[in-house]
Amino acid sequence: MKALVRDLPSPNEPAPAPVPGRGTLDPVSTPRGEFESSFGVSGTPITGGFLTDLGEYNPELAGRNAIPTYEKMRRGDAQVRATLAACKLPVRSAKWDVAPGLAASDPGFARAKEVAGFVRENLFGGLEFRTSLGSWTSQTWDDVLCNALLMLDFGCAVHEEIWRIDGSAVRLRQLAGRLPLTFYRWHTEADGETLIGLEQYGYRRGRFLNVLLPADKIAVFTHGREGANFWGMALQRAMYPHWYVKNKLYRIDAIACERNALGVPVWRLGPGFSREDRDAAYNMVTQLATHEATGAVEPPGDATTGLRIVGYQGRVRDTLPSIQHHNVMISRAALALFMDLATADHGSRALGQVHTDFFMLSLQSLADQVAAVITLNTVRRLVDFNFGEGAPRPRLIVANVQSRSLSSLVEALTGFAQAGLLVSEENVRRFIREELALPEESARGVVAIRGEAVAEGGEDIAGRVEEPGKTGK
Asked: What is the pLDDT of residue 447?
């Protein structure tokens, strides 16, 4: 627990940096308070904690007002749900790891590796605690990612860090998800953009109440944040106009099918019909249902009399092409154009591969954003509590999201090496391992290039040299 107490400055520490002057035209130094102050505005008004998105032209989609609509979209529309799943599943199934904060050649690498191992063990295997009844409750890393990726659905997501004291260590007990439905007010510093805390309104212990989550206890994931707009811009926002129109078109199509798809039973009576004939014919056409015993017998007489099924006449607009158009536009909002190649009028395998590569590139950026937020918040506090603020902070990394296959990576590196632009060195090897989620580098079990000698445990291992007339193996 000694790491929780900040050490006093040492007499040998350098003096604080002087405040920069205003240049040669004004040699007078700027007052420290004025130099460190903020003068600009973020562009996002937050009045009394209530955030106003000046760019949102639809009030129903501003902040928490949009949550009921977004819930309808993701719960009731197959295209929206499939598009969101296409964005989330590759990130959730990727290889997540914790990389040391220093390179292997750095003198403090052993310490950095120890810190990274502690963080890795806590995040990926130590998010668990005992309940009041003595049973264990565990949280998987997939649960953490599912909550963070709610920023695609609603614009932002938050998890709260819940800690526990474990002997001499401070560990994370849970990264508890806090649903956007409960977000109420965003409290900031006087600059209007530095978050102090998030106020929630929700149900707990038998009643509804307001609670404040301090900023140093949460991690905020925001999609498309601009200025101090902590709500962000949900991925569903761009899907909304097409979902809205498509929802109306489905109703029109359902009405058309109900009224016209099976036709209307019509019985034309012959001349001199009686009241009994009319009533019998009316009962026949109103009670007619389609099943295996459906049938009718026409009376003799005029060929134009009797029962017939009349469909709609004239040209009626088909709503399905419009519905398909809006489905494509919903996918386009997430760059997931490959989803609609099978139903579109055109497309090829090569075009689909291009769309997929670009889509996976966007998901790599999304995964990197999640990793950066957790690194700068949760990982930073976990390291500071246990190892002090000066300890090398590891990085949360994610691999196998972006479309980089092993064959394409090997082909590119081989081409660079043959052209003399690339040699085997530590940074390149570390990049390859992070991209392919390979284990940490070891000096044992090294395969040498022909003619090269590598070291293993202090001994040189000569590479196999191909003899003339023989093929190396």
From this structure: 55
